[in-house]
Input
Amino acid sequence: MGAKVNSILEPVLSLLFPNRCAFCQDILDSSCCICDKCLIKIEFIHPPFCEKCGAPLFYRESMKVPCYQCQDLKFDFEKNESLGVYTESLKKLIHLYKFNRRRSLNRPFTILLIRYKKEYIKRHDFLIPVPLNSSRYSERGFNQSSLITDEISRHIEITCLEDCLKRTGASRPQSSIHSRDMRLKNLTDRFRVREKYKETIRGKNILVFDDVLTTGATSSACAKTLYNEGAGSVDILTLARAVKA
Ligand SMILES: [Zn+2]
Ligand SMILES: [Zn+2]
Output
């Protein structure tokens, strides 16, 4: 059904948004929506990457070097996979999307996620976006995470439970807090599973979507909440993995 609707909408969308790069607005020849110039600037994460935090791994004398990005971190989810490293270009794009309200960027992000993470996404029963708290929602006017999860579920057979998680209070923006302990404290009990989904998620494999994974505190808080309600497993999907130099 979703695919059918999409095949009808596709030509309409390409009329409304003629072949321009969604990131830099350059005119494109193909019907794809990202230009090569922008694409090559993104540092995509290809295997091998850390099975836990999704950071790229490297080989030294044909031995995989253990991940030093997450050795001091404790996560409450099973694993994270990210589209790319949170370096300049991806950082800029995510910033444009989140803070400059460039909603149209949800499409290229979705296309890239499907291109590189389709198999990973399909391994799960439900896709759940991290919710924004209400004050930040009204500030930005949209939850960028749920736009992307909704779009993904139109292309891949996975059900998006858009409003499954809710925030219970106005926690401070995580980016304003620098200590991990304080971040965790800030998040404790900040998420709830909506009553109507409690049965639905029991024993299921959940994939939580967020924009960036840094210390994993937000993702861990979501995972903990879902596990408390009986989720079978919780993995994370993010646009970018922020790594230490
Ligand atoms: Zn471009
Ligand atoms: Zn790691």
Remarks:
- The mean pLDDT is 85.
- The chain is about 40% helix and 15% strand.
- The chain has two domains: 1-41, 48-241.
- Residues 21, 23-24, 26, 35, 37-38 surround zinc ion (ligand 1) (CB under 6 Å).
